[in-house]
Write a structure and sequence with these properties.
Elements lengths: L3 H7 L1 H4 L13 E2 L6 E2 L6 E6 H7 L4 H8 L3 E5 L2 E8 L12 E5 L2 E2 L18 E8 L3 H4 L6 E7 L6 E7 L4 E10 L3 E12 L13 E15 L2 E17 L4 H6 L7 E18 L4 E17 L5 E18 L3 E15 L3 E17 L4 E18 L4 E20 L2 E12 L7 E2 L2 E2 L6 E13 L3 E19 L4 E20 L4 E16 L18 E10 L3 E10 L19 E12 L2 E8 L7 E5 L2 E4 L5 E9 L1
Parallel strand pairs: 6-9
Antiparallel strand pairs: 1-2, 3-8, 4-5, 6-7, 8-9, 10-11, 10-35, 11-12, 12-13, 13-14, 14-15, 15-16, 16-17, 17-18, 18-19, 19-20, 20-21, 21-22, 22-25, 23-24, 25-26, 26-27, 27-28, 28-29, 29-30, 30-31, 31-32, 32-35, 33-34
């Protein structure tokens, strides 16, 4: 059957060149933008990691991979390992995740409240590719795409295998992956269960034990050569205990301790529907719908009980037009979500239209431009019947140019205008409605160079972002508000080099400065200060070996010391200490069976997340081990 869609799905892994292949390094397609391109021709900065890249690291979850292999900075959310804080390009761990859109197969994971994206719901073995777009993506993704976009692309067709591992602190996993295809359909099923006995304990012997269970089934059906239909159902269930912050003495003497724990439960159900229709050789229509129900309950160490339910629906439509010299994508995005609490309901609705155009001026020069108009509406309704509402009309814009020097190298320049509409938690003070606050608006310019040879892949970029009304939490008054003006700038370097037939090395480095220019709060004491929680130096270094049956890799991650997360005056006695972790993994494959092992934090470096003086949340603070087996059938 000559089915264009079937071929594209089944061969998607083949089209994504394996960065860890020790034959050659290739020019990978970028699919996260509205209009597909590749690394050489992209008009913006990218990082792309294939399934093989991810598998070779033996990372337990996506958090570990992003933190140890990419330019993304990650730490547990005040101790919660399943809802981690994420920073890209200097927005800080405290608020960075809200300035970054994270999606799975194009479906947004960003929440309407201050809960970070639930990446723990994505089993790492189900990921086909991770694409990071830096300083761009606001036309395609809108609200929150200030730092950029991380798009996680899952398998077209699952491989069939069983995997399990066991490690330190009772850390264990069991995974089953099933995939079946014919000319007319693909069906995938996936289940992934992870649990831990915990590494921190109180005086009664209670520990920060946790578990995470994910189940996913999806079907792709091809009635004819021109139509693809998609349906999926995802379920994620987490139960977590996590400890409170420690004083500096407690952290230095025994980071395993915690006087009390927060207990959290979270259930998420998502249904997805989609269709792609090839109208003719030049026109394609994509429609995707999702419905998510989330229930969460947290009993904090302070004794406060938080119970929420959230319902969210998304509808994304896109018309693709492809001609010899240009490509056009235009469409409508709708996102509607409502969170129900004990005494109120809060709604956030986003409705947007967008247009994006890529034009090939000649064989060497390509231009890209796009615009997005988005309306954001809020409604806060008490159970007593009274309500208030607010809305904002926001715009995003993107303009880029790429000059292809030759088949292996190019330079690009990009200007992006983006925005972040406040999440609904920003309007509350100690559980009581406070006030609506202003959206953040950002202008980012990026200049970059890409060079891809058979044995070497090099990417360089410099950027600057100017911000108005950057959103943050002003702790002295316990309110969320805006930094009047701020800016960020930096340099990014990535290089992957094949040393020989079997050896490779890679280096990912970024230098970032984030400054507060002007802010009324604090009576001017914030002006000219560094934004807290932003390390200047970020390094991930890898050296690896690969042969037919055996592979090994050693990596080191370093993030320099910076100001504690709440230190906007840069005056605290204690600073966020530097992060260091060296990881080693090995793998041996015999026929259809793979044996693997990993040591994380080889030199047992103490690592923690500083929010203020004597309030440190330890993580990855000890040497840990795991060993496992994977059977393919």
């Amino acid at each position: 059957m000559n089915n264009k869609i079937t071929i594209s799905l089944i061969t998607c892994a083949l089209l994504s060149t394996n960065l860890f292949s020790l034959e050659t390094l290739g020019n990978i397609e970028v699919t996260s933008s509205l209009i597909h391109t590749d690394e050489i021709n992209a008009t913006y900065a990218t990082e792309i990691y294939s399934k093989e890249d991810i598998a070779k690291t033996k990372s337990k979850d996506i958090f570990e991979f992003l933190n140890t292999q990419t330019s993304v900075n990650i730490a547990p959310n005040y101790g919660n390992p399943f809802a981690q804080l994420i920073d890209l390009r200097g927005y800080g761990l405290t608020n960075g995740y809200q300035n970054l859109v994270i999606s799975i197969d194009g479906r947004r994971l960003n929440n309407i409240d201050m809960a970070p994206q639930l990446l723990s719901s994505i089993a790492i073995d189900s990921i086909e590719r991770i694409e990071i777009i830096k300083g761009s993506g606001s036309v395609a993704y809108g609200d929150g795409a200030n730092a950029g976009v991380i798009n996680i692309i899952t398998n077209g067709k699952n491989s069939n295998y069983i995997k399990t591992y066991y490690g330190s602190n009772g850390n264990k996993n069991a995974t089953l992956s099933l995939g079946y295809s014919t000319d007319n359909f693909i069906i995938n099923a996936f289940t992934d269960n992870t649990s831990s006995d915990g590494s921190r304990n109180n005086s009664s012997g209670d520990k920060d034990e946790n578990f995470n269970k994910n189940k996913n089934i999806n079907v792709l059906f091809f009635p004819n050569d021109s139509l693809e239909l998609r349906v999926g159902r995802l379920f994620s269930n987490t139960s977590v205990y996590y400890g409170k912050g420690l004083s500096l003495d407690e952290y230095k003497n025994n980071p395993n301790q915690s006087s009390t724990f927060t207990k959290g439960l979270n259930d998420t159900y998502t249904t997805t529907l989609g269709a792609s229709y090839f109208i003719n050789k030049d026109y394609t229509l994509d429609i995707d719908y999702s419905d998510t129900d989330k229930r969460s309950q947290f009993l904090y160490s302070s004794g406060f009980l938080s119970v929420y339910s959230t319902e969210a629906e998304t509808l994304n439509t896109k018309l693709n037009i492809k001609k010899d010299k240009f490509k056009i994508a235009l469409g409508i995005d709708i996102f509607e979500a409502e969170r129900t609490a004990t005494t109120n309901k809060t709604t956030k609705n986003n409705k947007a239209v967008f247009l994006s155009v890529n034009y090939m001026l000649n064989n060497n020069i390509s231009l890209s431009s796009g615009i997005r108009k988005e309306k954001v509406e809020y409604i806060y309704a008490l159970n007593t019947g009274s309500s208030i509402d607010s809305d904002s009309n926001l715009h995003a814009f993107d303009l880029g140019i790429n000059y292809k020097i030759n088949n292996n190298s190019s330079i690009f320049a990009n200007y992006n205008k983006s925005f972040q509409a406040p999440d609904i938690d920003r309007f509350f003070k100690s559980g009581t409605f406070n006030a609506f606050i202003e959206p953040a608006k950002v202008q980012t310019a990026t200049l970059g160079y890409t060079n891809i040879q058979e044995k070497n892949k090099l990417k360089l970029s410099i950027f600057r972002s100017n911000l108005e009304n950057e959103i943050y939490y002003y702790k002295p008054e316990f309110i969320n508000t805006n930094i009047d003006k701020s800016h960020k700038y930096g340099f990014e370097f990535f290089d992957k080099y094949l040393l020989s037939k079997n050896y490779f090395t890679s280096l990912n480095y970024s230098y970032i400065i984030a400054k507060i220019d002007n802010e009324d709060k604090g009576n001017g004491t914030f002006n000219g200060k560094d934004l807290p929680g932003v390390p200047k130096h970020n390094v991930t270094l890898n050296v690896g070996y690969q042969s037919k049956n055996f592979s090994s890799n050693i990596s080191h991650t370093y993030r320099s010391s910076t100001y504690s997360a709440n230190d906007f005056e840069n005056s605290f006695t204690q600073k966020q200490e530097s992060y260091n972790s060296t990881d080693v993994n090995i793998s041996y494959t015999y026929k259809t069976v793979e044996f693997f092992g990993k040591i994380e934090n080889l030199f047992a470096e103490k690592n923690g997340f500083w929010t203020k003086d004597d309030n440190i949340y330890p993580f990855n603070f000890e040497r840990t081990y795991l060993a496992g087996i994977k059977y393919n059938f």
